[in-house]
Each structure stands twice: as C-alpha cells, then as structure tokens.
Design brief:
Elements lengths: L2 H37 L4 H19 L14 H17 L8 H22 L4 E7 L7 E2 L2 E2 L1 H13 L6 H5 L3 E3 L10 E7 L5 E5 L16 E5 L6 E5 L10 E6 L6 E5 L9
Parallel strand pairs: 1-5
Antiparallel strand pairs: 1-4, 2-3, 5-8, 6-7, 6-9, 9-10
Helix pairs in contact: 2-3, 2-4, 3-4
C-alpha cells in the first residue's frame, strides 16, 4: 500500500469524523434551545424574538461593510449564539412587565445582538498581529523553487467563496496579503512576513490617510523588508500610537520585474478561527 493510498484513507476518515462532530454539535445545540423553551414558557416569545433578531442582525452585518467587525468563520453558529445571548439578556432586562410593547422588545433584542457580537470581537482581538505577504502568488504554496501560481488562484477563489477574501486585484496580479485587515490595541505591534524570491524588497507605507504608528500630524510611517536566501523577509512595526483601521500601501520590487504597488483596503478585525 503506497503513501498516496494511506493519505486518501486518512482524508476520508477525517471528513467522516468532522461530519460526525458537526452532527453532535448541532444536535446538542438543538437540545439546548428546546430545553430553554421548555423551562421558560412564560417568556417563550422573548426566546423566539431573540433568536429571530440574532439571525437577522447576523445576516445584515455579514452582508454589509460591517462584516469586518465579525469573527468570520465558515461555521456561523458561534457568532449567532453570541448574538442570541445578547438579544435574550437585553430583551429580558428591558421587557414591559405588562406584556405589551413587543416593538420595544424587538429593538432591544436587535441592539443586544449587535452589541454582544461587537464586544466578543473586540475582547478577542490579539495584541500582536502577524501578516503574510506573498509577493508572487496569492498563497504561500510553492512548486519546488518557484511559486505555485495556479494553486494560489484556486486557494483565492475558495476564499472568495467563503467570504474571507476582499481584494480581487490581488488574484489578477499574483499577489496576496493575509489577513487583508487588522486592528490592534494601542500597546500592540504588527509583523509582516514577506514570502518571495530572494532579493525581493517590500516597502510598507501608511500613506492612505491611516497611520497607527505615527504621532499626530507626523510623517507617514514606512517599513521595509528584504527576502533573504533562506527564509521570509520580516518587517516589524510598533508600538501602535493610535488604534484604528484603514488602507495602506505595499510596494514590491522583485528581481528582474517591474515595481508593483498594491493598496490594501481591508479594515477591521482579522479573521478568527
């Protein structure tokens, strides 16, 4: 039995295990919701309103510019659960004892769902951020001593399908930044890892009206890295003077190729999970 056959069997077992775990997960979640409804019959409508508000708010946020505030995952249930908890607690805390005023309950549930989701993201943002820059492909895959551009395109298309990639220009010009967006607290720092051919120079400029590393009215921050012969180039920026989000520029100078400049327009918290 060769190695390819063993890998194929291991892959099939892994898929079966993931599906089994997912079925158990959703089964337990369903039992929890049923139990919650049974023990709170007098407030059953609050449970239903909270669940509906959680799903509505999550769908709205994921299909709007506010998607950058989300802990984006392929599995949406954890985020919806956070929304549901916030909606339920706020709607119960602000309920009308007379049983009237359901419109107010809807508003309270919606605000609680969004508020808890935003708090979950902000409290979970790492202090220090690592960003991968692929100078000659969307992904870090290489085919021997050259970048695997075709595989990088397939990876990028898959990420677009999952809603995790934002800038199509990266795919068209064989360039990738991941995550495209970041947000760090004031005491944080950022490290860029430059993947490319030896001698490739990357210049990172905060010249798009957003610069978390400069003093007020100061010169735009510039950080550089050169790819060595035995690993990635590294550019380090920190400390953060003023937290925020926005666009910045990455200029790539690869040996024997024209200079290319890319504007990274992502904004918000990096992908979780």
């Amino acid at each position: 039995m060769n190695g390819a056959t063993l890998l194929a069997r291991a892959g099939r077992r892994s898929k079966v295990k993931r599906r089994l775990n997912l079925a158990i997960y959703y089964g337990l979640l369903g039992l929890a919701l049923i139990g919650l409804s049974l023990v709170s019959r007098p407030r059953g409508r609050f449970v239903l309103i909270s669940l509906a508000a959680a799903i509505i708010i999550y769908v709205i946020v994921t299909h709007s510019p506010l998607r950058w505030t989300l802990p984006r995952r392929r599995r949406h249930v954890p985020s919806i659960a956070v929304c549901f908890l916030g909606a339920l607690l706020v709607s119960l805390a602000t309920r009308d004892p007379s049983g009237e005023g359901m419109a107010v309950t809807w508003v309270a549930a919606a605000l609680g769902a969004f508020g808890f989701l935003l708090m979950a993201v902000k409290s979970g943002t790492p202090t220090h951020v690592g960003i991968l820059v692929n100078a000659e492909s969307v992904s870090a895959h290489w085919n021997g001593v050259v970048p695997d551009v075709d595989r990088g395109r397939r990876v990028a298309n898959r990420m677009f399908d999952l809603g995790s990639f934002f800038e199509p220009d990266f795919v068209n010009r064989n360039f990738g930044v991941w995550p495209e967006h970041f947000e760090v607290p004031q005491e944080g720092s950022i490290t860029w890892y430059i993947k490319g051919r030896p001698g490739t120079r990357a210049t990172i400029r905060f010249d798009q009206g957003f610069d978390p590393f400069s003093e007020p009215n100061g010169q735009p921050s510039v950080f550089e890295a050169v790819v060595p012969s035995d690993g990635p180039g590294i550019a380090v920026a920190g400390p953060v003077v003023e937290p925020g989000r926005g666009a910045y520029t990455i200029q790539i100078e690869s040996p024997g190729q024209p200079v290319r400049a890319f504007v990274v327009r992502g904004g918000g918290s990096q992908t979780k999970g």
